[in-house]
Structures
1.
Amino acid sequence: MLRYTVSRILLVIPTLIGVAILVFFMLRVVPGDVVEVKLRGDGGNVSQETIEQERRRLGLDKPLLAQFGDWMVGVATLDLGTSMWTDRPVIEEIGLRLELSLQVAIMATIVAVLIALPLGTLAALFRDTWIDYVVRLLSIGGLAIPSFWFGMLIMLTLLQLFGWLPPITFTPLYVDPMANLAQLVWPALAVGYRYAAVVARMIRSSLLEVMSEDYIRTARAKGVFEKLVVSRHALRNALLPTITVIGLEFAFLIGGLVVTEQVFNLNGIGKLFVQSVSRNDFTLIQGMVMLIALFYVLVNLAVDLLYAALDPRIRYR
Amino acid sequence: MRRIITAVAAVAALAAAGPAEAQSPKRGGTLTFAISAETPHYDCHGSDTYATLHFSAPFYSTLLRFDLDKYPEVAGDLAQSWTVAPDLLTYSFKLHQGVLFHDGQPLTSADVKATYERLRAPPTGVVSTRKATFSDIDTIETPDAQTVVFKMKGVNAAMLEHFASPWNCIYSAKVLAADPNAPKTKVMGTGPFVFGEHVKGSHVTGTRNDKYFRQGLPYLDGFKGVFMLQAAAMLNALQGGQVAGEFRGIAPAERDRLVQAMGDKLRIEESSWTLNLLIAFNTEKKPFDDPRVRRALSMAIDRWGGSQGLSRISTMRAVGGVIRPGSPYATPEAELVKLPGFSKDIRASRAEAKRLLAEAGVPNLSFTLHNRNLAMPYTPAGVFLVDQWRQIGVTVDHKQYDTAPYLAGMSSGNFDVAIDFSNLFMDEPSLGLAKFVSFTRAPENRSRANDAELDALFDRQVRELDRGKRIELIKAFEKRLFEQSYQVPLLWWHRIVPTHKTLMGWKMSPSHNLGQDLAEVWLNQ
């Protein structure tokens, strides 16, 4: 198990280097100039001399390989540079929003698992009964309704029924847990519903597949209680593909909630990502792509380790 | 619908009557308001967006300011008194005693001088979008710590109003000497509020400046400006009482929703707006270097009909020339309709437009329309124009961009035809017409055209002190401009500002750039 874990961790490094090379050079191919957008984006008269001076200050006058080298040295020392737009450290810009995005992702995952696990299991166990139909209807609804639209419905319902809305600025959990939860529980619900729909359908189909396996029939033939058959033998195996889906959805939520963030006026990574792309803020985009790639890699690593924990065949292979 | 209109009228009338305004201001409380855009930096001198002013104005003072009770009259801000020489070539200002910057340093005439030197001749690396405005200043003298004297190169009929521009935040000479670009990232003013924090992407806060030089002000303990880029989120927050107002302006449909939902808790104030949309043709690109093509495209637009429809769904409303309709220097409707592009006989105009395009050899013209991706009013304006030009056989690819790339695209000339805007803070013609003089003089002229005749007319009207003669010069300017159609107005905006009834002391004006220092705002709670 240790050897497996170490080998998986070591694989993270070349993956991130590959991502760094791709993102750096692909961004340079994209048309647009951050300096022009930054200095002329106010509509003012800016001399070419001023533009060149700013370009030199940002290091954009250096050869591409030299720029890449500088950036990679920074990445290796956990210094992602400064935003070309705001002149603030990229880590600071991301850090300001990461706490909120991470918390929404975690809360949405909790909501999704809490809803999907029992519903998906029930739907599989009571296949083609009214329970199954209700769960399927709810999950199709979850897939069909965009999270941002569900979020708007939540906001309007709160406003019309209670004349109340969640706070509009972020308070960290450790500062005021009530204010924090009052703001973030609603986007977590809006996103968690769609997320739960995906996971519930996955649990149902996996469980149905597993329940028809020979070892389940054998367990039943041996007289094992049905509860144990489901919880110990069936569900454990059915969770393997489900964990992959949960992991990928979680990583997506870190930077993928652009519209939902706007509906709830959240200052998250998604909004920052869109802003930085529209401004050609290379260093910030690079930093965020690296962060999201890191999340995907770490989540995949965690999923792989969970696979190994759940399935001894993977552990001993 | 009738119910909504009646409610709006009632609320607007109540607001106008302002019985509550007669109450004595109460001290205390924190105002939370929405800002529908986030400033890219804090420097008033290098910005042309309200996002910077709604953020920065509470922290700064200006030499003069507009008196919104008597708009467009000016009043003193840092200047306690001032004199203007009879030949209009010398302006002397006496500053208030005991004004302190937020770091405790006293304000002197040296700070005013350093500020205006930066505005008129910014050092390399510093952007001043007001460089051309103050090019008439010859020298700035500081005979003593409280006196500053501006000597002019020539007469400028609107110089006093320019000194009242909200963009001329007074900076500390010491701060500028250390780093001329410091105001972009650091806030250090003498305004009614002291900078608290700016959480990027979220909000800005300010606390009361207890040493503010205007006695008894500000009333508020502090403020919090929350960036709310999505209109629906802002309207929800307003309705839910999380923000007490939004000071730029909302669309008629948004107003109706709020009025219906909030009834007498809401105050709606409306005004015509010193803001209009323009259509800029890039004269450096073919076929827009041909005046026949530009004029044809302008003539194909049914401004009068468009005004009827667009005013119901957007912030656009009035048809006008380059000066705000209804203001003293505006061309009356009877004369406006005689100018190319402003006729009420749209059928005849379009027939002429088609003829001009055929004559110019581009009967099936196609091009890209460069537009901003702000829903209100840029998107409906773009959709409207595409449809208008379709009716004379022109095919348009409508592309919308975020604010910064949109402005950068126009500044660098990387477009065919663009929807531009003219964001003014007063009706003074020298300000309104400045955007249309030659590109070599006014880089904000998006058409990039150079026209000596327009320049000469502009210069003559700036120096002209006889009001009647000045109006004639402005009319001549408009005639030449619309015949050449380098840049043409689309429609002027209509400002609708929603505030909670608890918010008091804020003053409505035709410009969203004015009255944002919040010094006299108080909460009736």
Note: The mean pLDDT of chain A is 90.
2.
Amino acid sequence: MRRAAPGSRVMSDRKLPRLLQTPAVLLLLIWMLIPLGMTLYFSFIRYVLNSLRRPEWTTPSLSNWRGFGNYEFVLNNKDFLFAIQNSLLIVCSILFLTVILGVLIAVLINKAFPGRGIVRVLLISPFFVMPAVNAVLWINMILDPVLGLQGLAVNGINGMIASLQNAPLVGWFFSLWPQLEPISFRATQTSAYAVIIMVTWQWTPFAVLIFMTSLQSEDQQQKEAAVLDGAGLWSQFRFLTLPHLSRPIAIVVMIQAIFHLSLYAEIEIVSRGNGNKNLPYLIGEFANNNIGAASATGIFAVILANIVAIFLLRMIGKTLME
Amino acid sequence: MGRIVLENVTKSFGDAQVIPPLNLTIEDGEFAVFVGPSGCGKSTLLRLIAGLEETTSGQILIDGEDATQVPPSKRGLAMVFQSYALYPHMTVRKNIAFPLRMAKMDQAEIDKKVEGAAKILNLADYLEQKPGQLSGGQRQRVAIGRAIVREPAAFLFDEPLSNLDAALRVGMRLEISELHNRLATTMIYVTHDQVEAMTMANKIVVLRAGHIEQVGSPLDLYRTPRNLFVAGFIGSPKMNFIEGAEAEKHGAKTIGIRPEHITVSADTGPWEGTVGVSEHLGSDTFFHIHNSGLAETITVRADGEVGFKHGDRVRLAPREDVIHRFDAEGLRIA
């Protein structure tokens, strides 16, 4: 079947660009669909890396079909709900802290002062530290209750108070003070906070960088108009700077949410998952042997990421559209 | 009320003195225009009055009170900026209401004043829109609205029309003049455009390098420019300057004659030249005359119907009574 001459010309006009796009589109599809398809497939079969009792489970095959059994297994796992809650706690805390610190620091260094260039470079530098190195440095050198800065500081304060307790006049006041206990950040109750602290330290520079560039494009005449209109420093910040930053804040929140849902290295190094798991870490634990359960968890992670993404787009999309 | 007096005001940025000691009085209700070429310090002077720049020395008196150290928001002045400086994320209503909100006025009164200002400026239909959705002229009106609601002692305009296209500029010029007539509030207006200055001002202040060259009504400046700079700056097209023997005949180093004061014809007049470019505006024609032996080019205004062509020999007759004479220092000889 042939079309009329003009029609076929239009067709060929469209065909060429489509043809040229095809490799990229195909590559993307392969890139996404094959891993996703394999994960889905593994999540519905019994597939383990090592089993002496049932050696047939060690090769993926449709004859090992398990239906939703893997999903059931994951849902009944005691760590699953905890991992989801913990994922959200970590992501939300980091977002909250980095945005607030980022805005404050960016506003602070936006003013001209001697040495501003050096200060800026230093401020950005945590972002260039590798996550694993960051975690090792923090947990051993800073947060360690004995050898870290924390331990030294607590010891120092305790020593100072002890020596002041015998001082005349003010001694009674200091003898009321309790002995301070250093906090162990590898413990079940605190390991999540250690991760939050170190990731916040690493990612605040990212927020600062984005907010700083945005602040430099702020219209100075608007500020002068506001000064004449009687706005004080706080009102200028509240009514001009903050709305001006709404778009970069949306971008920072979006990018960081994506990154922090998949935190792994910090959790591994701080406590090996003790008291602090997120979905990727849970997947890692399952994947030591049970690939089926790991795949099912992976599918749950995809679902969680999508829920978070929809939520963020609803909340932030509006700001970006304006 | 809004009588503004500057006494020996100076401004330096580092070692560079931008405004040497300067004295100026702007009477209540006056429309004063600061005009001068770019970099002459006119905007700096306005910002000193507004309080956006600190005065290095001297005094600024507003209604007889020393305002030199008073913060900008307490001076009772409102300013309209070249870039409009509207708050982009607020609606027009909130933009206009902003100074009132900062003054903690109650909501009912704010609404009343905003509606009032919107009515004067024909903005009533746009109150719920954001500045980004408005045209340049409308944005300018919002900026003026934000100034009006404060009921300031004086309005300060910093080149407010330079971002508008030519047709709109003429319209807004009329609107601002109209507004001045209606409110009878002091207005200080900065521009580099001498046409704006001539058409709007009661009082023109011509500035050059921070110095006041001359202060006066538009016609004063047109009729009796104090020196060569003012003579060349006020009036369009520019005044013709002639030096040499012709000037000495009039007992001056330089004489100046405006294009509209020279009659061009085929056979009468003491001066002679060749027609170069002619600019036909319809109502008028401007001829640029070369080879007159007086100056490189002499510009002449003629009636729109006068039709000399490129290369024609013509004769020029200046009106003797309006020839301006200047001495070696460039000052006017009375």
Note: Chain B has a mean pLDDT of 91.
